[in-house]
Amino acid sequence: MILLNILIACFLISVCVWVAVLFLFFKKETLSQITMFLVSLSAGALIGGAFLHLLPEASEGMEAEKLFFVVLSAFVIFFLIEKLFHWRHCHQENCEIHTFGYMNLVGDFIHNFIDGLVIASVFMVDFKLGIITTLAIALHEIPQEIGDFGVLIHAGFNKTKALVLNYLVATSVILGGIVGYFATFYVNGVMAYLLPIAAGGFIYIAASDLMPEIRKESNVKKSIISFGIFLLGIILMFAVKFLEH
Question: For residues 191 and 60, is the Cβ–Cβ distance under 8 A?
Answer without folding.
Answer: no
